[in-house]
Amino acid sequence: MPNPNLKAFLLLALLCASPSLPADELQAVMDLARAGAHGLALQEMDARQPDFQTDPSGWIRWERERLYVLELRRDWEGVVARARQAPADIPDSLVHEFITRRAEAELALGRVAEARQLLRRGLWEASAPAAVRQHWRRLLVRGYLQENAVADARAAMLRYQQDYADTSPEWYLLSGRVLLRAERHAQALELLRGVDDARVRPYRWLARLHTEPDSAEAVAAEIDKVLAQAETSEPLQQARLWAVRARISALRETYAEQVRALEAGLALGVATDPALFELNGEALWGAYLAWGGQLGNAEQLLIGQDERWYFAATEAMEDQPRRARALFALLALQGQTGEHRELAHEYLAKLVLAQPGGGNLLYGLYLDSSQFPRIADIPPVVRYLLVDVALDRQDLEAAAALMQGLAAPAAERQFAWQLRRARVLVLTGEIAAGVALLNDLLGGQADWEAGAHDRFLQVIFDLQRLKEHERAITLLERIDPAGLALQGRRELLFWLGESHAALDQPRTAAVHFLRSAILADPYAMDPWAQTARYHAAQALAEAGLRADAASLLRELLRVTRDNNRRAVLRHELQQLEAGQDADHDARP
Fold it and tell me: What was the pLDDT predicted at 120?
């Protein structure tokens, strides 16, 4: 399976190999974030963001995107910290924006009192525009809802409407939420009826289900039409639609449809308002059990006949995997022996992970359900899988908790287990212990299976991101090239070059980059070779070998067709040649 983080590193290399104009440097870093490498993008921002005092407008552009990346990875503590650390002399408009983003982060962290204090101070002190003040007032209402203070939320909502007579979609959304939470369903339906905004639909349909129970079939048809037409690609909006669809299926006792809707919504990995939209692992377990029971009755299966249930589940795995998941879920909770239950959990977890968004779905099933009140209650076979999901999500706290007290697996899984342990240790700051485990693993690399090197390199990349380049070099140099295909050997040389460059060893870095470029063919100019040659040219220039660097850039210019890239290469070549002329003129 391709490693998404490895792909992100390759993307960074290609971006650097095909240099953008300086104005596009931030865009190149944001491409990394959109590829899913949020941590890598933040590391690049640390290295490249201009200083506020020397380039305030540049700093502001980068800082806004940094906050966006932190929000993408749900690092709300990071958002709060950056907002607190903002320079004192930033423009008022940015002060207002930072108050907003910090307040939203505080709410996401459940720190309603802190958010309320910040917003009230802003409303009292800041001469913010009316639109900003309105947004802050709406955030205060959200905070009351989050504390389940529905009466306070409704009172604040009424005061707000008296002050502003707002008719924006944001206002209708918030008002609808407050009325639904206050169980004023008819008022909510009246308010939201006819509002032409896709975000309002889930709330309007929810209100309609409460006030017009006979409308369930018609509402289901409308939701199915919207979902089939893919009218929205926004995950939160889709999740709300799936939650309402699941509610209708539960009311109609069409449990197969309920399972489909809950799986689709949970796979999106977004948090909905749990008081209105029941989209969690608890609901999915209930739907699995209800549907599994229906299937068992249809096939005349009795509780206690585990072998017959297993046969029915495994028969469905290939052509009807959702049906198989329901049967395995029932067995996982109601199987007659611990061995049977654990085997069912393993089948279920692997089937779940095979789905798009399977990591989010697995998280919901096992970490958001009263079926497993403690992590120790989750079957070990599932915890092994959840550790990988947690690491991919950069949820280090969960990864460490999942590994706590977990016994080592069978011998055939030792490599993956030790690699997980090493990665958790590295990412939680126990670098030396993690590196020691990696060195132990390298001792058995002759027996590694296919794909093991790529997984091992992922932890090397973690070390590089943490600027532990000396340790990364030591480990990379211990990898036996004989166990790698040609492209793997080229990549190994390239990553060595990256770490030597980071350690301000440009000559050594240039050697590795150039060897990576010419390993397959001294004249190779495939995309990887161009990537490595460009890095080699930069390192050579840094080492003072300008003539060699210029020679490499001329060769790249000869084969490059993209006009923007050619312009940048010409510019760099001119700078090198100007430096060479200056050196020549300075000679006695």
Answer: 94
| Residue 407: HSE in the Cβ half-sphere, 13 Å Cα cutoff | 6
**Cβ–Cβ < 8 Å for 118, 99:** yes
Please report the pLDDT score of residue 222 as a whole number. 92
Please tell me the distance from the alpha carbon of residue 370 to that of residue 136, in angstroms, as a whole number.
35
pLDDT of amino acid 583: 53
- Return the CATH superfamily for domain 485-588: Tetratricopeptide repeat domain (1.25.40.10)
Please tell me the distance from the alpha carbon of residue 364 to that of residue 266, in angstroms, as a whole number. Answer: 7
Cα–Cα distance for residue pair 177/195, rounded to 1 Å: 14
Range 421-454 burial, b when 16+ CB lie within 10 A, else e = bbbbbbbeeebeebbebbeebeeebeebeeebbe
Contact 387, 409 (CB under 8 A): no
> pLDDT means per 10 residues in the chain (588 residues)?
41 42 68 77 86 90 93 90 91 92 95 95 85 93 94 93 88 92 94 87 94 92 87 82 95 95 94 89 96 90 84 91 95 91 95 94 94 93 91 84 82 78 88 93 86 88 91 94 89 94 94 93 89 92 91 90 82 79 50
Report d(CA 310, CA 316) in Å as an integer.
10
Q: Which residue in this structure is represented by tokens 């749900």?
A: 74
**Are the beta carbons of 215 and 207 closer than 8 angstroms?**
no
Residue 521 makes CB contacts below 8 A (sequence gap 6+) with 529
Residues in contact with 133: Cβ distance below 8 Å, sequence separation at least 6, in sequence order: 123
Q: According to the model, what pLDDT value does residue 38 have?
A: 81
**Alpha-carbon span 567 to 124, nearest angstrom:** 52
What is the pLDDT, as a whole number, of residue 427? Answer: 85
Query: Is residue 56 classed exposed, middle or buried when 0-12, 13-18 and 19+ CB atoms within 10 A define those classes?
Result: middle
Contact 417, 409 (CB under 8 A): yes
Hey, what amino acid is at 358?
G
Task: Transcribe 165-199 into DSSP letters.
Answer: ---SHHHHHHHHHHHHHTT-HHHHHHHHTT---GG
The residue assigned the tokens 């706590």 is 404
Model pTM score: 0.75
pLDDT reported for residue 234: 83
Token representation of residue 52? 């506020």
347, two tokens: 């089948």
- Displacement of CA 328 from its chain's centroid (Å): 28
Asked if 296 and 330 count as a contact pair (C-beta separation under 8 A), the reply is yes
Residues 298-345: tens digit of each pLDDT: 888 888 888 898 899 999 899 999 999 999 999 999 988 989 999 999
Q: CA 535, CA 538: separation in Å to the nearest integer? A: 5
pLDDT at 204: 94
- What is the C-alpha to C-alpha distance for residues 365 and 574, in angstroms, rounded to an integer? 59
Question: Domain ranges in the chain?
Answer: 188-268, 280-372, 485-588
Instruction: Write down how long the chain is.
Output: 588
User: Which letter does DSSP use for residue 377 in this model?
Assistant: G
Name the strand (E) or helix (H) holding 545.
Answer: none
